Amino acid sequence: MNLDNLNNKQLEAVTSIGQPNLIFAGAGSGKTRVLTYKIAYLIKDVGLPPENILAVTFTNKAAQEMKLRVQELLDFDISSISIGTFHSISAQLLRKEIHHLGMLNNFIIYDQPDSISVIKSSIKDLGLDIKQFEPKTFKNHISQLKNKLISYEQAEILADDFLSQKVAEVYKIYQNQLSENSALDFDDLLLKPLELFKTMPNILKKYQNKYNYVLVDEYQDTNKPQFEFIYSLAQNHREICVVGDDDQSIYGWRGADISNILNFSDAFGESKIFKLEQNYRSTQNILDAAYFVISKNSNRADKKIWTQNKKGEPIYIVENLNDSIEADKILSLISENTSKGEYDFNDIVILYRTNAQSRIIEDRLRRQGIPYHIIGGVKFYERKEIKDILAYLRLISNLSDNVSLLRILNFPVRGIGKTSIEKIIKYSKEIGDSIFSVLNNIDNVNIGISQKKTIKIFVDKINEIHNTIDSIDVVDLVKKVIHEFKIKEHYDRQNTSDSNERWQNIEEFINGIIEYNDEKEEANLVKFLEEVSLLTDIDKWNDEVKQVTLMTIHSSKGLEFPIVFISGLEEGLFPISQYLDQNDELEEERRLFYVGATRAMEKLYLSYSKLRRRFGAEIMPMLVSRFITELPEENIQYIKSDYESRKMNIISKDISYKVGQLVQHSLFGKGKIVEVQGEGNESKVSVIFHGNIRKKLIAKYANLKIVYE
DNA sequence: CTTAAATACTTTTTT
DNA sequence: AGTATTTAAG
Fold this sequence. Notes:
The strands form five sheets. Strands 11, 12, 13, 14, 15, 16, 17 and 18 form an eight-stranded mixed beta sheet that branches. The chain has a six-stranded parallel beta sheet with strand order 3-2-6-7-1-8, sandwiched between helices. A five-stranded antiparallel beta sheet has the order 22-21-20-19-23. The model is unreliable at about 645-655 (pLDDT under 50). The protein has 30 helices and 23 strands. Helix content is about 45%, strand content about 15%. The N and C termini lie far apart (about 90 Å). It binds a DNA duplex through helix 4, helix 9 and helix 19.
């Protein structure tokens, strides 16, 4: 096949087979190109059938794109290839095999909120106070244990203090609950295949034989279970190629283990190592700035990516008085860039450290009528109204899913209150059966007659739809649920702007299902639910639509935009406060900045506010982030926000400081000016305060008030 | 049992 | 400021 599009290094990496490949690929060095060409090369020139290739990407969207691009390079059908995220590949495998572990193949995947609700009830079961023992914290602890491949039995043995003991106890109950509900959480999705490989060697062999070549993208962000997964598959033939960049490792907090990439050769044996260092994405200025910040990390192998691209515009530093002015300023900069037709809205991304920062920017975008799209935050499928519908579908697909059942037992309200539900749960625990089967024989539970009547109707409807599962398509199924359980009526009755919006979201959800049903040949409920659980906002994102994109820096990994704004560059926000004096974590923040900056192709704006509102009330004074102050002067240019310069003009006209004037300072109190340098707001003023303390202050920061006698 | 009002809590990042 | 949870009134 034609490999002319590759540079020498890329070409070598693409055609290297016969031993493990480790490719260090700097930001923008064309690693996606290498991976797609390598897959195409394996199929066309090496003659490997597509179904024998496994390629793991970081998002489903990246997987889709990779598949498309490989297909473009080849003239025959490659749809049998396995390209996907670790989670989706594992889920597919488990749908075929998990019955060997005694679970149902139509298991449900619990997302974070689902898991937390199970953990919450587990904590309550132990008689602990959920205010003192936060479900979210327990979820994190359990998740960390799972990422270290520690079972609850081992956790119980290892527990050496009160908290870890309790964590182990909750872990055990939680895990039992999951299996009773036929549910897996995100971590289990990675762990169950390993369990399967361990207990059923013939199944391991089957997949080892199937996947003759394994490729992994974003390898620096793989965790232990993910490593074990690919190691199990590739350890014998050692036909594996991983691509990553240790400078872009930003998921340490999720258990990603940077030693996976650094010790690759130790694990897989003698390997061929490639380094892609030419960047095709960004201007020289952007790369210089990114390099200056990342080079402050001590725990890294020094390397510098280079480019033949032009120097480009300076990095713009935007200082603002507060967060809402920051949002205004970002908007005016967007208009400045788009008004001449030079850039479109979809050339622009606004990045931030925390999702909460998006709201104020979103607010301005909406007011200005600029089209935008937010990725992350509260995900579409996590909205209450969508989860309610999903809960119906999940219950219908898997009657043992207690979490979903409890969610909808009294939604829309049908007169089954707290006391009845508690009695039902208690009874189900006593007889050790699922809640739905208790409802099936509701006469055994001591609750009110009208409640029993309603439950019987509810159960009959669920059973009826459950029985039609294989005979009607997903769209009709959803419509039937909405009709039978009078969901639309529920929102119509409220008729508030909120309820109308919720109903609109449900309509969008229905449209999504119609689309899904048209696209996929073997669409069915179980597959649809799986896709919904594993699909993220990025996966659904259409970058052709002309709208500004907002997302966290974490979400931006692997993407590129002509114009990038990084907002909220303040000490305590980015880098985030908990990490200001913890070196490992600070280094990860630094890598995060590096990732954000290297998303930019042409222009990079870094903005910060001197005051930031937190929790709606308190306004915190902020210091500019070290990531800005560390940048070399020759690469940057300062921009003052409009409001700021306007305000300064007013002040500098009105106020002039003179020697001998009395002034008031918020901290030092009353004082007398003894020296003035410069004019107006920019002037430096020396003041002697009470107690003969002499201070030299810059007027615009000191906020001195003139005292008239 | 339901609804509305009061109050508590949030902000690290995600498959 | 916005959302989730708890409490009080109906």
